[in-house]
Amino acid sequence: MANYHGCDLPEDLYYDLDYVWVRPEEDGTFTLGITDPAQTMSGRVQYARFKKPGKHIKSGKPVGRLESSKWAGGIPSPFDGEIVEVNPRMEQDPGQVNIDPYGDAWLVRLRPDNPDTALANLVTGEAAMDGMKEWVDRYDVYCMRCAVPGAEEEGGEP
Question: Among residues 18, 116, 128, 143, which one has the fewest Cβ atoms lying within 10 Å of its Cβ?
Fold first, then answer.
């Protein structure tokens, strides 16, 4: 995993070069989340609301909305598709995105209308890393993730 200005940037994901990451799954669905730089810029996420499974979403339209004390915004779908699953953990504890944006805090899973072109507007690998570093520089972001409660007492990483 690449790290730039404290921001984790997994090379194996696909990025919209703004704030969404996408991971293809073996079952043909795609998992969506927000990047480490995006969660840092948003501040502590306090509210998450998502469209219901079964809802068809057009490319660029929001799959849901996240809000913090300093930011509120929709999370755009990178392709046309149907929401097949919403992360229940995020609905119950939206602040998880500030702790583990690439793991337990994924947002939704989508089934694309056209799997062959679903990733056409996203980048991965070296091009994604370069683009994400430019984004971090443009917004002067130095990433910080919130500590997992109790991690210090247990000897874990904050």
Answer: 116
Helix (H, G, I), strand (E, B) or coil at 103: coil
How distant, in Å, are the alpha carbons of 57, 108, 130, 142 from that of 136?
28, 24, 10, 8
pTM (global) more than 0.85: yes
Residue with tokens 């909305």: 65
Q: What is the pLDDT of residues 114-128, one digit of tens each?
A: 999 999 999 999 999
Contacts of residue 154, Cβ cutoff 8 Å, sequence gap at least 6: none
Q: In the beta sheet, which residues pair with residue 45?
A: 68
Sheet holding 56-57, edge to edge: 56-57, 81-86, 108-112, 30-34, 20-24, 14-15, 123-124
Distance CA 35, CA 32 (A): 10
Backbone angles phi, psi at 102, to 5 degrees: -105, 0
What three-state secondary structure class fits 71? coil
Q: Is 22 exposed, middle or buried (0-12, 13-18, 19+ CB in 10 A)?
A: buried
Closest CA to 65 of 79, 77, 55, 78: 77
The residue type of 6 is G
